[in-house]
Amino acid sequence: MIVVVDYGVGNIASVLNMLKRVGAKAKASNLVDDIVNAEKLILPGVGAFDAGMKTLRESGLIDVLHQQVIVARKPVMGVCLGSQMLGRRSEEGVEPGLGWIDMDIKRFEKRPERKVPHMGWSHVACNYDHPLVRGLTDESRYYFVHGYYMCPDNECDTLLTADYGQKFTAAVAKDNIFGFQFHPEKSHRFGMQLFKNFVELI
């Protein structure tokens, strides 16, 4: 069973729909027992960093999530804001992140030649081979909506990169922890492949 963590912020219905399409057994829950009994976890999120972290903290789920992800090493996928919350902090606010990956979140600088936020479809490139990106090709593209981007301390934690007037981290992977800056649940067959790969991770 995959549990989509329902802490009040996120595109949960679309994530569940994509999981259903790839044949996964999944549900949304904010119950401690469900999180403890889950095989894998998904941390969704939309909106501002501080609001997301405050809402997650108020849900009372941070301790059990930390236990399951860091101690029990349960696979977890962060999506959009959920991926940024895996890091230490964001230039968007002052709240501390989960700190599961050594990274900060930085804002795209506004330039005459590009608009912020970055909205629309972009191709991604793989930094290295990983089961999570099995089946990705040069034509793989994903739907982005974000004004901030992930900056891991360790280049090895960057799994995918994209370009928006500068090269930036589009996905991170560290041990059992994964995060996608884009919306795989809105990225049609390309996103479906990523969800399928996550479901099949051992």
Automatic annotation (TrEMBL):
Domain of life: Bacteria
InterPro entries: Class_I_gatase-like, GATASE, Imidazole-glycPsynth_HisH
Family matches, as Pfam families: GATase
PROSITE patterns hit by this protein: GATASE_TYPE_1
Keyword tags: Amino-acid biosynthesis, Cytoplasm, Glutamine amidotransferase, Histidine biosynthesis, Hydrolase, Lyase
Subcellular location: Cytoplasm
Pathway membership: Amino-acid biosynthesis; L-histidine biosynthesis; L-histidine from 5-phospho-alpha-D-ribose 1-diphosphate: step 5/9
GO terms assigned for molecular function: lyase activity
Entry's EC annotation: 4.3.2.10, 3.5.1.2
Active site: C80, H183, E185
Domain Glutamine amidotransferase: start-end pairs: 3-199
TM region(s), chain numbering: none
CDD domains: GATase1_IGP_Synthase
Functional note: IGPS catalyzes the conversion of PRFAR and glutamine to IGP, AICAR and glutamate. The HisH subunit catalyzes the hydrolysis of glutamine to glutamate and ammonia as part of the synthesis of IGP and AICAR. The resulting ammonia molecule is channeled to the active site of HisF.
Subunit structure: Heterodimer of HisH and HisF.
Name of the molecule in the record: Imidazole glycerol phosphate synthase subunit HisH
